[in-house]
Amino acid sequence: MSFFDKIFGEKEENPEQKSFWKKIESEADLAKAIENSFHHKIAIFKHSTSCFISKTVLRNFEKEVNNSDEKVDFYFLDLLAYRPLSNKIAADFGIRHESPQLIVIENGKAVSNASHQHISLSQIVS
User: Residue 125's pLDDT is what?
Assistant: First the structure.
């Protein structure tokens, strides 16, 4: 552990390296995610990679997921790199874009969404 890690905390693991995340990087990825929602709930986490608040919320959410046994597909969208996909999700589901944001989809319909400190695994299990 480096000196700065000791002072400021350990470096956070890259979200793409977490085993439960599936990336959304194209309209085909998004279509596959929506298709999967007809088999079980899915969750899409829209993350701004340049925002400290979004990073903090993401880290806290990942801790919740790691301590859970929920059978959900978790999708990760880097909204700075893929803003058109973020806009498509907002338009297709009639949900105002926010960041960070978690959208839970079941049977092709958004059943829950939250942003900032309201993001929690409880959105999925309820």
Answer: 80
Any residues with CB less than 8 A from the CB of 42 and at least 6 apart, and which?
33, 34, 36, 72, 73, 74, 75, 104, 105, 106
Which residues are within 8 A (CB) of 101 and not within 5 positions of it... i.e. 6 or more apart? 45, 46, 95, 113, 114, 115, 119
pLDDT in tens, 20-77: 999 999 999 999 999 999 999 999 999 999 999 999 999 999 999 998 887 899 999 9
CA distance 15 to 98: 19
Structure tokens at 84: 């058109």
What's phi and psi for 2, nearest 5 deg?
-80, 165
Domain 23-125, second-level architecture = 3-Layer(aba) Sandwich (3.40)
